[in-house]
Design goal:
This protein is mostly helical and about 240 residues long. It contains 11 helices and 2 strands. It has a two-stranded antiparallel ribbon with strand order 1-2. It is globular. It starts with a helix and ends with a helix.
């Protein structure tokens, strides 16, 4: 079995053991956002000519694929700090590229699962989109990018406390400020210029335009692809640096 496939298969076997709990956990946050923001706040609100619910769901898909893709960082560090599985990987004939590939593919798998949960939940709330190839491509690239970032940072942190800080100071602010829940045009010009550099901004833009059948945002796809490749390469170097 190829190295990357062994890494991926191990993660899938663990996921299989807690599949239904994982699905239930993935459903809580999107359900709360749909009920609280979609109905509680935005029931009679329109944004860019569509209901707030229709505007919010694409942003929720972008945010959730980011969170689920990045969530593998915590699982890597549990295996690294407590189970000492990472030491076994180091002793096994598995290259750093294979290790990163297996973990990133698992992050993408979790992101796609999370997206499936949101699509089903939003369908029950009357939100219907045409999920075309541009939508899946944007979702895949966003998950690829944040799973690669997750592996990179998981190799750099020294404890679970550091891991929590990364989520609090990087992932959570990006999730709310990257054009997921409101149009960036409503932000002050200077702040909008800064937010335009966030990868989640490009993910939300690409996913929203794909779901609204607007011309594809190829510049956003390019940003996600280039950053994804850069952080994938960085993850390989970080795995090498984490050797004990």
């Amino acid at each position: 079995m190829r190295g990357w496939m062994a890494i991926y298969y191990r993660e899938i076997l663990i996921l299989k053991q807690r599949f239904f709990r994982q699905l239930a956990s993935m459903s809580v946050m999107p359900l709360l956002y749909i009920v609280a923001f979609g109905y509680g706040v935005g029931e009679k609100v329109t944004v860019d000519g569509v209901s707030y619910m229709m505007f919010m769901v694409p942003g929720l898909l972008a945010m959730n694929s980011m969170v689920q893709g990045f969530s593998i960082a915590a699982e890597i560090n549990i295996a690294r700090f407590y189970w000492r599985v990472f030491e076994e990987f180091q002793a096994a004939p598995i290259s750093h590229v294979a290790y990163v590939t297996g973990e990133v593919l698992f992050g993408i798998t979790k992101a796609l699962m999370g997206a499936g949960v949101i699509i089903i939940l939003s369908w029950f709330f009357g939100v219907r989109f045409s999920y075309n190839v541009y939508f899946w491509l944007a979702l895949f690239l966003n998950a690829f990018l944040f799973a690669s970032i997750a592996v990179s940072l998981a190799m750099l942190v020294k404890s679970h406390a550091d891991q929590a800080l990364l989520v609090n100071f990087i992932i959570t602010p990006m999730g709310f400020l990257g054009g997921t829940f409101f149009p960036l045009e409503r932000m002050p010009h200077i702040l909008r210029e800064v937010l335009d550099y966030l990868p989640i901004t490009h993910a939300a833009k690409a996913i929203r335009q794909a779901l609204f059948n607007q011309p594809p945002a190829f510049d956003s796809y390019a940003v996600l692809l280039v950053l994804g490749v850069v952080f994938f390469i960085a993850a390989v170097f970080c795995v090498d640096r984490a050797k004990e």
